[in-house]
Structures are given as structure tokens and as C-alpha cells.
Design goal:
GO cellular component, one term: cytosol
Cofactor: [4Fe-4S] cluster
Number of strands: 13
Keywords: 4Fe-4S, Cytoplasm, Iron, Iron-sulfur, Metal-binding, Pyridine nucleotide biosynthesis, Transferase
Number of helices: 18
InterPro entries: NadA, NadA_sf, Quinolinate_synth_A_type3
Bound molecules: 1,3-dihydroxyacetonephosphate, iron/sulfur cluster
CATH superfamily of the largest domain: NadA-like
Pfam families: NadA (PF02445)
């Protein structure tokens, strides 16, 4: 919770600055890793997600690694990088569009032509055909999606290839294919006489292009946290049950809001036969939840909510639906990053918000809304360690390379995968965002 007033609004908006304050002892609590005060290139060549909330998750061997950033960018001051990014963007003009996710640091967001949640960014990549290059300041699965939905002449660039997502890496194509084969043995593959398929696969946007292609090929759909409820409705109109991956929490929270009991949402552990379930449990299931999670959002607890309410009795608690179910139940509302942004904008002055999502967004909202009191539920600052990898040094490097006619860090999805994944993504984009049932009013769901 806030312990001092910022003297400069940008002070609260920078994770780097917040981490310096922690180091200087100006804020209660401690960082999850003091390495977060280091620049990202210190970690880029080392296998791992780097410092931050997902640092201890095992990284797959084939996860992309970022090569060394040229020294001129590593040595440049913040002001120099800011000026170089502005100059490169001015030189490129309409030839480039910079997209930024809400979780990006402020030093990046200020250069983005469009900032949004993962649904909005996918749409933004699809609707800006004038730009030859889309510089995607987000994580790898978002850049892959942008490549799939953008026009063939457009190049998508991820400024730091090490910006992955530990949750997306928790579901691999081989493991999902193995699960699918086991489900086919139990439920068959033939369409039921009511016209419904036995199982509809639904993948969260936070997954590889290969998994989106798998889903597209098997009659399924992609969802984001902003349209998961509407996507489940879409899936249940076409199938008897859903295989939901990789995020168990988004699946469980959305399923429960639709009235599905927990007993009908078993967890699928890919390391166990039948996912660790009995045949009978699977026959009863409506949603099979893959054993994945976000390391940032699973840090939020009911205890933190209790403490926030004790200190600020009128506080409105909003959490992202990647948080565990007990946390979503204890909150006043749950929704995507865009839902959180809009809820705060619509509130009367003097409102108090305790937020359960990534710290960059919470700090920016606090700086942009001095009329409210806004703080993060978690007193320990742990940014998403992969979003954090997009540092202005990398943005300056990719933009200046474009000015010189050189495309670095291009993300490409092979045509076959892109075609199949595109089917599932177009289905997703046709399902308009809407809040998870019950998330706008009162407590829990
Ligand atoms: P949104 O879809 O809400 O932008 O979330 C993306 C994400 O990665 C959250 O962890
Ligand atoms: Fe992935 Fe979590 Fe980071 Fe989102 S916040 S990109 S789900 S690790």
C-alpha cells in the first residue's frame, strides 16, 4: 500500500523507479528478487524467465533467447534512448506502428501508438494495414498472433525475443495432443446426434501459435480474458464439453460464473494417465482444466484483500481472472486489463481501488488518476518478468535498424500453422468482449 505521496506523477509509473525506492528502503516490503534492479540484458543470454514473479518456472529448451544488445544501446542514458526512439519513429512515419500491452513499463507505453489488452492488440494488428512494420511491445504469443492476423506484407517485430510467457509455455503441443487422444478414446470423435462435438478445445490467447492451430483444426476457438465468458457460450453451443488450456484459473473462474460446479471442472495434469482423473470423473466433466497458471497472478491472496479492506474499508477490490478462484470470490469484481482500466475511469472521484494485477498497470493507473487512491494488493513488487524484458534500449535498437533498412527480431509463423491458427483467431475476434458473469456487481460469483 502507498507509504508516501509521489512528487512527480511519473515516479509511480516506472517499475524501475519503484524498485530503486525499495532498494533505498523507501517502501515497505521487499522485492521478489533484488536482480530486478538490473537491466534485462544482464539476463537475456541465460536460460530462464529472468527476475520477477515467474523466475522459478522451468523454461522450455526451445524458448527463444535474445542475442546480445549492441553496447551503444546498453550504455545509453534514459534520455538518450527516449530521443533516439522519437527520432527513429519520426523518420519511419506511417511505415511503422508501435503496439503496447498495458503491462509494459511507462518508458515504452509513452512511445506506443496503441495501448490495450491482448484482444484489443490482436484487433489493432489486424486493422493497421498501412504500416510495413508492427513493433509489438508485449510478449511472444501476442507477436505471433499479430503476425497471423496482419496482412502478408507486414512484418511483426518483438523488440526482445526473450519476452515469452511462462503460462503459455506450460502447455506444449505434444502434451495437448496426447490429452486429446485420451479424450477421444473415452468420448469418441463422432458428432453427437444433437449436432454437438464431444469436446471443443478452447485455448487462452496466452499459448503458442502451434496450439492455436491445433484448436482451429479441431473445431475450437481462442479466448482472451475479456471474452472468455462469451467464448464458453460459443463452445457449449457446439460441443458437450470443453478442454480449456493453459490457464486453469481463467477456465475455472469463467466456468463457475456460468454455474458449472467444481466437480464438473476437473484438472488435467499432463504428467498423469487420464490427467490424474478417473474415467467416471471425465464422463461427468463439462470443462477440463489444463494444469497451467500465471506466476504473477497466483501471488494474490485472500489475506491481501482482507488487509486492504481493513486499512481502506470502502475499497473496491478488482482482480484479473487469472487469479485463483478464492481471490476472485473475495474480490468485488474481476476482469481483463481493459475491464480494470475502464472501471477506474468510470468511478466517481475519491474512490479507493485495491487491484490484483501486474504492477506496471497499477502504478500507471495510480499516476493517471490522482483523484482516486489506487494501490496493488500485493505489497511486494513483482512485475511480469518477461514483459519487463522490453526495455527502451531494445525498442531503440529495432526502430533504428528499420530506419537503416534492417529488420531484426522478426516473428514469423509458418503458413500452415498460421492458416489453421487464423481460423481459431477469427472465431475469437467475432466473439465480442463482455465481462465475466457477475463480475461487475457485488462480491464474488
Ligand atoms: P489481458 O488479456 O487482460 O490483456 O491479459 C493478458 C495477460 O497476459 C494477463 O496476464
Ligand atoms: Fe504471461 Fe502472466 Fe506475464 Fe501475462 S502476466 S504475460 S500470463 S507470465
Amino acid at each position: 500500500m502507498p507509504t508516501r505521496e509521489p512528487t512527480d506523477p511519473r515516479e509511480h509509473a516506472s517499475v524501475d523507479r519503484a524498485l530503486q525506492l525499495i532498494t533505498a528502503g523507501a517502501r515497505a516490503g521487499s522485492s521478489c528478487s533484488s536482480s530486478l534492479t538490473e537491466d534485462p540484458w544482464t539476463f537475456d543470454a541465460i536460460p530462464g524467465y529472468g527476475p520477477g514473479a515467474s523466475m522459478s518456472d522451468p523454461i522450455p529448451d526451445d524458448a527463444p533467447r535474445q542475442g546480445s544488445l549492441p553496447p551503444e544501446y546498453r550504455k545509453a542514458t534514459d534520455e538518450e534512448l527516449h530521443g533516439r526512439i522519437l527520432a527513429a519513429k519520426a523518420a519511419l512515419g506511417e511505415r511503422v506502428v508501435v503496439l503496447g500491452h498495458f503491462y509494459q513499463r511507462d518508458e515504452i507505453v509513452q512511445h506506443a501508438d496503441f495501448v490495450g489488452d491482448s484482444f484489443q492488440l490482436a484487433n489493432a494488428a489486424r486493422t493497421r494495414p498501412a504500416a510495413e512494420a508492427i513493433v509489438f511491445c508485449g510478449v511472444h504469443f501476442m507477436a505471433e498472433t499479430a503476425d497471423i492476423v496482419s496482412a502478408p506484407h507486414q512484418k511483426v517485430i518483438l523488440p526482445n525475443l526473450a519476452a515469452g510467457c511462462s503460462m503459455a509455455d506450460m502447455a506444449e503441443l505434444d502434451a495437448v495432443t496426447d490429452c486429446w487422444e485420451q479424450l477421444e478414446e473415452i468420448f469418441g470423435s463422432a458428432t453427437h446426434r444433437d449436432g454437438c462435438a464431444p469436446v471443443i478445445p478452447v485455448t487462452y490467447m496466452n499459448s503458442s501459435a502451434a496450439l492455436k492451430a491445433f484448436v482451429g483444426e479441431h473445431g475450437g476457438i481462442v479466448c482472451t480474458s475479456s471474452n472468455a465468458d462469451a467464448v464458453l457460450e460459443w463452445a457449449f453451443e457446439r460441443g458437450q464439453r470443453v478442454l480449456f488450456f493453459p490457464d486453469q484459473h481463467l477456465g475455472r473462474n469463467t466456468g463457475r460464473a456460468r454455474g458449472i460446479p467444481l466437480t464438473q471442472m476437473p484438472l488435467w495434469n499432463p504428467h498423469l494417465p487420464l490427467g490424474g482423473n478417473t474415467r467416471e470423473q471425465l464422463l461427468e466433466a463439462r470443462i477440463l482444466l489444463w494444469h497451467g497458471f500465471c506466476s504473477v497472478h497466483r501471488r494474490f491472496t485472500v489475506d491481501q484483500i482482507d488487509r486492504a479492506r481493513a486499512e481502506y474499508p470502502g475499497a473496491h477490490v478488482i482482480v484479473h481472472p487469472e487469479c485463483p478462484m478464492e481471490v476472485v470470490d473475495a474480490a468485488d469484481s474481476a476482469g481483463s486489463t481493459d475491464f480494470i482500466v475502464k472501471a477506474i475511469s468510470a468511478a466517481p472521484p475519491g474512490s479507493v481501488f485495491a487491484i490484483g494485477t501486474e504492477i506496471n498497470l497499477v502504478q500507471r493507473l495510480a499516476a493517471e488518476h490522482p483523484e482516486h487512491t489506487i494501490f496493488c494488493l500485493d505489497p511486494v513488487i513483482c512485475p511480469c518478468s518477461t514483459m519487463y524484458r522490453i526495455h527502451p534500449g531494445y525498442l531503440a535498437w529495432v526502430l533504428e535498424s528499420l530506419v537503416e533498412g534492417d529488420t531484426v527480431n522478426r516473428i514469423t509463423v509458418d503458413p500452415d500453422t498460421a492458416e489453421k491458427a487464423g481460423v481459431a483467431l477469427e472465431r475469437m475476434l467475432s466473439v465480442a468482449p463482455r465481462p465475466i458473469a457477475g463480475s461487475t456487481s457485488g462480491k464474488g460469483n
